[in-house]
Amino acid sequence: MFNNQPRQQRNRQPAYLLLPTILALTLIGLLFFLQTKIFHQKLHSQSLLLETTIIDTRQIEASRLFYQDNQQSGQIQGDPWLIESGEKQIKITIKHQDYWRPLLAP
């Protein structure tokens, strides 16, 4: 009924179970970390692409308004734009950030 083995021998667990478990958990944690990094990078690149698309759309619309209606400045969906006629550049302001794009030819 009583175990007469010394205490040190009774509490000993086989190491062949502990090491693979630690390695598996480390691998799962590393994969989760990499997946999170990849997701954040993809999200960042998509937001940059969206920002570039918005700026390009404003550039096209401002160029059209300049050639069709001879407008030098205005607002497109709340974002102001201005054409520097000497340089043929369009200054587009979005969220207090200025972007310069060339005036597109018709």
Task: Describe what you observe in this structure.
The structure is a single chain. The chain has helices spanning 7-10, 15-69; strands spanning 73-76, 79-84, 89-94, 97-102. 56% of the residues lie in helices and 21% in strands. It contains two helices and four strands; from the N terminus they run H-H-E-E-E-E. Strand 3 (89-94) and strand 4 form a beta hairpin. A four-stranded antiparallel sheet has the order 1-2-3-4, with helices on one face. The protein starts with 6 loop residues before the first helix and ends with a strand. By secondary structure, the chain is an alpha+beta fold.
Derived from helix and strand composition plus strand pairing, the structural class reads: alpha+beta
Total count of strands:
4
Q: Overall 3D geometry?
A: rod-shaped
Provide the residue-averaged pLDDT: 87
The main pleated sheet reads as: 4 strands, antiparallel
How large is the share of residues in beta strands? Answer: 15-25%
Low-confidence spans: none
What string gives the helices and strands in order?
Answer: HHEEEE
Biggest sheet: strand arrangement: 1-2-3-4
Gyration radius over CA: 32 Å
Distance between the termini: 97 Å
State the assembly state of the protein chains.
single chain
Helical amount:
55-70%
DSSP helical segment count:
2
